[in-house]
From TrEMBL:
Keyword terms: Translation regulation
Species the sequence originates in: Acinetobacter equi
GO BP term, pick one: negative regulation of translational elongation
Subunit comment: Associates exclusively with 100S ribosomes, which are dimers of 70S ribosomes.
InterPro entries: HPF/YfiA_ribosome-assoc (IPR050574), RHF-like (IPR036567), RHF/RaiA (IPR003489)
One Pfam match: Ribosomal_S30AE
GO (cellular component) term, any one: cytosolic small ribosomal subunit
Gene Ontology MF annotations: ribosomal small subunit binding
Identification of the protein by name: Ribosome hibernation promoting factor
Protein family membership: Belongs to the HPF/YfiA ribosome-associated protein family. Short HPF subfamily.
Keyword Repeat found: no
Length: 110
């Protein structure tokens, strides 16, 4: 499985990269059909007028490509590790739903 990690307006540190690879490899270890994964991390530099700090400005987006399907999730939080955790949880739910749909629509063998 190929995981592509990109950063927009921030640099990808080895700790962030290791965190992403760990979370996504755990998530897809039971599914061997994953063709590729793409993770995009970005930081929005807008400042909230009231609190004088950026709120929910660390954004994580992920795309998982399966044969015949493409799963997408996006999450934002105050720090990057929380947004990575949120996006991995969203994709985990989508993958379990996808697996259930595959088992329901499997052709019957006679």
């Amino acid at each position: 499985m190929q995981i592509t990690i990109r950063g927009h307006h921030l640099t990808i540190t080895p700790a962030i990269e290791e965190n992403i690879r760990f979370k996504f490899s755990q998530m897809t270890k039971h599914i061997d059909q994953v063709n590729s994964m793409q993770v995009k991390l970005s930081k929005d530099h807008q400042i909230d007028k009231h609190s004088k700090k950026g709120s929910l400005n660390h954004i994580a987006e992920a795309i998982i490509r399966l044969p015949g399907a493409e799963l997408f999730a996006q999450a934002s939080a105050d720090d990057m590790y929380t947004s990575i955790k949120k996006v991995s949880e969203k994709l985990k739910r989508q993958l379990t739903k996808h697996r259930k749909m595959q088992t329901i629509f499997q052709p019957l063998e006679i």
